[in-house]
Amino acid sequence: IVHPTAVEKLLNFLDQANLEGKLAAFNLFWQFEDKRIERVLLRLLDDPSPQLRARAISLVPHFFDNTVVPRLIVASKDKDVSVRVAAVRLEPLIERLGDSDPEVRAAALKSLKGHDDPRLSDIVIKLLSDDSVSVRRSAVSNIKERKDGRAVGALTGRLNDDDFLVPSWSADALGAIGDKKAVVFLTKTVKG
Question: How far apart, in whole angstroms, are the C-alpha atoms of residue 46 and residue 74?
Fold first, then answer.
């Protein structure tokens, strides 16, 4: 049980602390269920420091319900990539798959792990041809996890990718899908 004045002391510290102190204070927030912390987090979503904005976004799910989604959508368009990456975990992720920054696209794909939204298939298949290696890797990983049979043709095209991991991951994904066409293709490829 936390002493009632602890939140007040933490909030006073936040007003006077330097950036390092403020970032350290975030590690204590999860211990409190206090409306004052919610107000501070909302204020920090507009802080000039991208590090503070990103950290505030990461705590939002612990304190808020869906009423804060409009603020998160704004954060997902932040000029700083670390803020956009933090927001991508909370905002409708599928929209972030089209972000101009490859780090955000890759983070969105990783965050979509375990989601089986029917809209994903076409989008993720398209991302197999992304200019960014990290996005292509994330797309292959996403397809493998979902065992998306619609991606067989696109995955076979990645077997000759310039990246050293994408071809082997694509072969692995094709094997995980277990589609007869994929097995036949992989057998032919291995035989040469």
Answer: 10
Tokens of residue 92, six digits: 């409708």
**Separation CA 67–CA 126 (nearest Å):** 32
For residues 75 and 95, the answer to whether their CB atoms sit within 8 Å is no
Each as own residue / partner, the long-range contacts of residues 25-29 (CB below 8 Å, 24 or more positions apart, any chain) are 26/55, 26/56, 26/59, 29/59, 29/62, 29/63
DSSP code, position 76: T
Please give the single-letter amino acid code of residue 43.
R
Query: Is the pTM for the entire model greater than 0.85?
Result: no
Residue-wise pLDDT tens digits, 97-114:
888 889 888 887 877 766
Return the H-helix or E-strand segment holding 22. Answer: helix 19-29
Number of DSSP helices (H) and strands (E) in the chain, helices first: 13, 0
Q: Which of 176, 118, 168 lies closest to 145 in space, CA to CA?
A: 176
**Are 109 and 128 a contacting pair, CB within 8 Å?**
no
C-alpha radius of gyration, the chain, whole number: 21
